[in-house]
Amino acid sequence: MTDTRRRVKVYTLNEDRQWDDRGTGHVSSGYVERLKGMSLLVRAESDGSLLLESKINPNTAYQKQQDTLIVWSEAENYDLALSFQEKAGCDEIWEKICQVQGKDPSVDITQELIDESEEERFEDMSSPGLELPPCELSRLEEVAELVASSLPSPLRREKLALALENEGYIRKLLELFRVCEDLENREGLHHLYDIIKGIFLLNRTALFEVMFSEECIMDVIGCLEFDPALPQPRRHREFLTTTARFKEVIPITDPELRQKIHQTYRVQYIQDMVLPTPSVFEENMLSTLHSFIFFNKVEIVGMLQDDEKFLTELFAQLTDEATDDDKRHELVNFLKEFCAFSQTLQPQNRDAFFKTLSNMGILPALEVILVSGMDDVQVRGAATDIFSYLVEYNPSMVREFVMQESQQNDDDILLINLIIEHMICDTDPELGGAVQLMGLLRTLVDPENMLATANKTEKTEFLSFFYKHCMHVLTAPLLANTTEEKPKSDKYSWYTHTKQSLHVSVSGFAFLDDFQTCQLLALIVELLTFCVEHHTYHIKNYIINKDILRRVLVLTASQHAFLALCSLRFMRKIVGLKDEFYNRYIMRNFLFEPVVKAFLNNGSRYNLINSAIIEMFEYVRVEDVKSLTAHIIENYWKALEDVDYVQTFKGLKLRYEQQRERQDNPKLDSMRSILRNHRFRRDARTLEDEEEMWFNTDEDDLEDGEAVVPPSDKMKNDEDLMDPISKFMERKKLKETEEKEVLSGKSSLSGRQSPSFKLSFSSSPKPSLSSPPTASLHPGSPGSPGSPGSGTRSSPPTAAVTTKVSY
């Protein structure tokens, strides 16, 4: 079959509650005589064998998930699923199932819409509730069957829950459990397991309150130890009473709070360890259990938060230097759990929670924890988690605290520097804690979450503080691990093995190249890259003054590709800014040299390093960064000219040659700019400016002779020329009418000829502002085009237009 709409995978749920793939095929629906009803058939696409034959039972609960999945249970502990390749096929089969069951295809769970038969409806109307069998040892099997049969129907579940609640049935069942356990009645214990598990699936808060009460909860856990599927019962009660011990780091005097903490721990244990893994349907039935735990945690946090005496004692012991290490360890773990519980609070309540902790001095306490727990891995981990809760909740609160404490404390004991020190000193080979702390530092220096008010800007204040007091701590490993070597008598080798680790020497710099050091340097360079992107003059001044880019580019020689790529990303981010301050810094220090060297050392290998370096040069070429283009070609062309599998470097050379050609021949550059515009026309604003200058000139300031418009550097067509000439002629005619007599008098007195106005437009280069115009204002001067004394011209003017007007 080629219809991909019906293409499915068949899954079954195994004993470990994992889905097993039974094969891929095509599904269809039809009447099967052997099953006496409409059925789902799946035949393998490989050989046509039958993978699934399942009758669509009117009482079976089918569930559609994620638009392409249909799940159902055919028997106890036997769940099936069809995963469709296309949504359309899933919809078709779902409509068939709903058609057989008489349901609306718009629903996702047919079970929720199961209608009672007319007979059941009559029974429900006539009987006020469900009648439970007497709670006796001989009737346990009957009770278990009643509970199991009630679960599929929402209405029967409701009636069963009411009956259990009203008759105090659960306490009677737990009394029977103690009897069965004393008599070692294994069959009765198995029935009680099924009954209690079914009561959990009724999803009723009122029943949970009875089951989780102080006198009942351990017996409930005892019932769930006797799973019929296991050969031997589990020992959950033994673990809870002997192994798990409740520690009070600070004495809790409120008995209600103590009871609530015990209850929450045990219910959480039931959910995570005692109850079997729920099926896809049972998960929805346990939603009230999740809510029960959730609201218990909210109550615990609220009660502790309101107990000022408790919190005051907690922080007093945390900050007391006399507190021993074991006690501080317990206090830190309690504070971590306390903060973790707060994540269940609503935003408004969470705000109040962290404000309370802030007022109690959690940040100064955290400093003490970090200083005293440097050698304790668990304390460091707990402190990191607490700090992450605070930063994620309100980074501005943390920034304000560290700026205030900088006015009183030395840089070494500032909270943010302690965090950086913990990151640098992480002993984990994979630097898991360092990665987490680096993410928190990035959040703190991110301008996007900084506040700006009318009186002050948090971004300016905090970044100035960070670069003054903290940046040198952050970059210390980078500067220390890229130290400049002293000259030696022998030649440097690229790789020199020592007893401790591999050292790399390049361009007079050496650095440790072991994995853990490289991981740390990569984290630092990544944060610096983030700073280049989001900070402005702060990071620019720091990079240029401390020569950071040179140190980072030393890392391109690392044997670890991830570190070399980090250093290239840093360089690429700087180049991408197209900032001439950075460009001059790069050129002055020849910082493309390590990049070119890394490219050549990479050889013909086609990998990320090769691609990253080529992309950087391609960016310079495409963006036409002129200063860097000239620097690269003038200094590294001989090393790169043989690279012909990409056109990047030849394209850079072409850019460079075009740039030089434009510098040597400005006239050619001007013509190219005209050709790029696809028309021979000056900007309209330029024309208007020149016309305004012309007409603002007083006639009396002109000597007798010609008045010549300064030549333009661009060619014009006749239509472009005539427009300003027409305006000029109209204005002159108006002036002629008003001043005719004056002009005639001046002419007769002077005895000179009438002035001849000549407008010359040439394609010759435009004169500079400091040089006089090339055409003389005197009509009789030698060499003036068209003047009476010029005689025969040696060569005709290029593209010249001359208009004479005689008065």
Characteristic key phrases:
807 residues; alpha+beta; 7-stranded antiparallel β-sheet; 4-stranded antiparallel β-sheet; 35 helices; 13 strands; globular; protein phosphatase activator activity
List the SSEs and their pairings:
Elements (H helix, E strand, L loop, with lengths): L6 E7 L5 E14 L4 E8 L5 E6 L6 E4 L3 E7 L2 E7 L2 H15 L16 H9 L13 H11 L3 H13 L2 H15 L2 H16 L3 H7 L5 H7 L12 H8 L11 H20 L5 H6 L1 H20 L1 H12 L5 H18 L4 H14 L1 H11 L4 H17 L1 H11 L9 H10 L7 H13 L13 H12 L1 H4 L1 H5 L2 E2 L10 E3 L4 E5 L2 E4 L2 H20 L2 H10 L1 H7 L6 H16 L3 H9 L4 H10 L5 H15 L3 H15 L7 H17 L1 H11 L7 H13 L21 H33 L5 E3 L45 E3 L1
Antiparallel strand pairs: 1-2, 1-7, 2-3, 3-4, 5-6, 6-7, 8-11, 9-10, 10-11, 12-13
Helix pairs in contact: 3-6, 5-6, 10-12, 14-17, 16-17, 16-19, 17-18, 17-20, 18-21, 19-20, 20-24, 24-27, 26-27, 27-30, 29-30, 30-32, 31-32, 32-33
Q: What this model shows, in words?
A:
The protein is α+β, with helices and mostly antiparallel strands and 807 residues long. The protein has 35 helices and 13 strands. Mean pLDDT is 77; it is low at 113-127, 485-503, 684-688, 694-722 and 741-807.
